[in-house]
Amino acid sequence: xxxxxxxxxxxxxxxxxxxxxxxxxxxxxxxxxxxxxxxxxxxxxxxxxxxxxxxxxxxxxxxxxxxxxxxxxxxxxxxxxxxxxxxxxxxxxxxxxxxxxxxxxxxxxxxxxxxxxxxxxxxxxxxxxxxxxxxxxxxxxxxxxxxxxxxxxxxxxxxxxxxxxxxxxxxxxxxxxxxxxxxxxxxxxxxxxxxxxxxxxxxxxxxxxxxxxxxxxxxxxxxxxxxxxxxxxxxxxxxxxxxxxxxxxxxxxxxxxxxxxxxxxxxxxxxxx
Length: 273
Prior knowledge:
single chain; two-stranded antiparallel ribbon; 12 helices; extended
C-alpha cells in the first residue's frame, strides 16, 4: 500500500485496517484499542468515521500498531495535523511538511500544479507575455508588474511556466504564452489555490494605495438572503466568470493585466426561523 498517495488520514487508517484484517482475521478494533492504549474498542471506529479527532499521541500509537516505517510515520503525523487544521495558515504549514516528506515517494501529488499557485506573479508574468515582447530582460519584465517583483523572481516565474508548458520559446529566442489549459481539480492543488486566492485578495487591499482610483474598481454589497438565494448568487458569479473569460479571449489589443476577485462570505451565523 502506498501510504504517500493518501490525502485523508481517516481513509488511510480504514484501508490499513482492511489490509491487516485480510491477512489476519484476529486483527480487530479491540486489538487496536489494546495495543494503542485506547479505553474503548469503538474509538478506532469513531476516528475512521470522522466522529472524533485524534491527538498526536494517539496518531503515533496507531502508527506503531500498523508498524509504519519512519518516513511513513512522519507523513502520517503531518497528514493528521493537516486534516485537522482549523486555519488556512496551519493547513499551508502542514501541507509544506507533507510535500517535503512525500517528495520522491509517490507521484500522486502533482508538485507542478502546486508550484504554479505558490506565487501570485506566476500567472501575472504569463499574461504579461501577451502584451509585452520578452527576450530575456528580466528587470524590465519584473518592473512591469504592480507591485514590481525582483528580476530573480521574474526569472523563476519564466522557469516554472516553461516547465509546466504554459509559455514557450519563440523562433526569435524570446518567450510567449502557450495555449495550454490550466487544470485546478487536483485536491492538493486546491490547497495551493486557497493560498493564491488569499494572496490576490491582499493585493486587492493594497491596490487602494498603489493604483489611482480611475484605474481600479471596488464595490461591496451587504445583503440579508436565504441559502437558496446564496446558491443563486454563486451560479450568477460562475456565469460572470465565464463571460469575463470570453471577453478576455476576444481581446485583440490587450495593453494591461487585471486581477478580478469575486468574494461572497457570511457576516453572521444562520438564524433560526
